[in-house]
Amino acid sequence: MVHITHRIRYPPFESGKLNAEQIPVVEYSFEIDGPVIPPFKLGKTNSWHVERVIEGNYETDSKYHGKVPQIIEKQRTGWYLLPHPIHAKARKFINFVVVVLLACLFYLFSTPLQTSLGIPTFGTGKVRLGLLDYPLLAVIIVPLMLIPIALRVAANLGDLRRQNFFLLNSPPRPEINFEETETGSNLKGKIKFLDSREDWKRMKLSWRVGILPPARHKVFAALNRDPSGQPPPGLTTPLPHHWEKGLDDGTGMGEDAPMERHDVPGGVFLRPMRIMSSSESVNIELEGGEFELQNPPGEWPGTVYGGLVRVHWELLIHIERESGGPLLWVEPLTVLHGEDEIVNENITISDGRSESDAL
Questions:
Q1: Average pLDDT, the chain
Q2: In this model, does residue 359 exceed pLDDT 50?
Q3: Does the N-terminal or the C-terminal CB of the chain have fewer CB atoms within 10 Å?
Q4: Distance CA 322, CA 330 (A)
Q5: Angle between the N-to-C axes of helices 136-168 and 86-116, in degrees from 0 to 180, rounded to the nearest 10
Q6: Does residue 279 register a pLDDT over 80?
Q7: What average pLDDT does this structure show over 69-92?
Q8: How far apart are CA 210 and CA 48, in angstroms?
Q9: String of b and e for 50-74 (b: at least 16 CB within 10 Å)?
Q10: Which residues contact 180 (CB under 8 A, 6 or more apart)?
């Protein structure tokens, strides 16, 4: 009998705004009789990390055994879109507007002091609009604040139009065959598209590995918390109809993807894994063909799916189109484990926004 412990401090949505050391480590222990997947540690203990610890002597099992979680079928298999790039640009513009607004407020606050010191001021006069008087700076700043909101609304309407067209005209599933792959080796296979479209310009492939969010109810159970009570640090209060039990941690609700149709299981936009490593992309003919992809940077374990620790591998097909933005096909992979323990402290953390998930 082998004693196994899984520990994870998974980065929540926009983890860059949080102190990792203040987020509790979720730990779960269990026992297995027979061969087991080798131990591994990804990340640093004082930061975001995922760890599998094995106590005692064990025999190595290189294959994954078990049930694939529903998050793979609902959010990481099939055709996907990327949101309009205006979303990212509008978000950056909002940051600029906030800085300008705070600077203007400080300027107005210090105007009496400047006047008493004989320093000339500007923009503090009044402008009459209708029956009311407004500060001149307000007339300039308020429209500036409304611009990113208008851009986001226009981008959301465009995304909804693209989603409707895509769902009515989605291509058939490609035929993909893989050779058996072990972690640390190259990925070889063959792709065949039964119906390549006239508006497709270029196609490229990559494969990647990452850590999927732990199931929210498993996190609460491991921390001995009431799911209907106060969430632990790093987790948000759940919103109705935005997540399902066992799907993810629920921290990205409403922010990880822009407006999308909720009648599609898992959504239309592909969310990036917040801990992830991607290989370099290679071009391939639009009709398909054989391919070989280099291993993603860093040392990673093979496929592992559990309630808390989920090491996921996938092939990503990125199709550039003449209009409508990129089209993505995601194909899950089952990658075998090696014989040795994996230690990889240099992991990359992303915020989890779907607009950043591109080659």
A1: 87
A2: no
A3: N
A4: 21
A5: 170
A6: yes
A7: 88
A8: 13
A9: bbbebeeebeeeeebeeeebebbeb
A10: 336
Is residue 40 within 8 Å of residue 301, measured between CB atoms? Answer: yes
2-45: pLDDT as tens digits: 899 999 999 988 888 788 999 999 999 998 888 999 999 999 99
Domain ranges of the chain: 62-84+166-336+349-356, 87-163
Residue 38 φ/ψ, nearest 5 degrees: -60, 160
- Counting every residue written for the chain, the total comes to 359
> Which amino acid is residue 262, in one-letter code?
H
Residue reference for tokens 């591998």? 313
φ and ψ of 244, to 5 deg: -120, 155
Per-residue three-class SS string for the chain: CEEEEEEEECCCCCHHHCCHHHCCCEEEEEEECCCECCCEEEECCCCCEEEEEEECCCCECCCCCCCCCHHHHHHCCEEEECCCCHHHHHHHHHHHHHHHHHHHHHHHHHHHHHHHCCCCCCCCCEEEECCEEEEHHHHHHHHHHHHHHHHHHHHHHHHHHHHHHHHHCCCCCCEEEECCCECCCCEEEEEECCCCCCCEEEEEEEEEEEECCCCHHHHHHHCCCCCCCCCCCCCCCCCCCCCCCCCCCCCCCCCCCCCCCCCCCCCCECCCCCEEEECCCEECCCCEEEEEECCCCCCCCCCEECCCCEEEEEEEEEEEECCCCCEEEEEEECCECCCCCEEECCCCECCCCHHHCCC
Nearest to 63 by CA among 301, 276, 298: 301
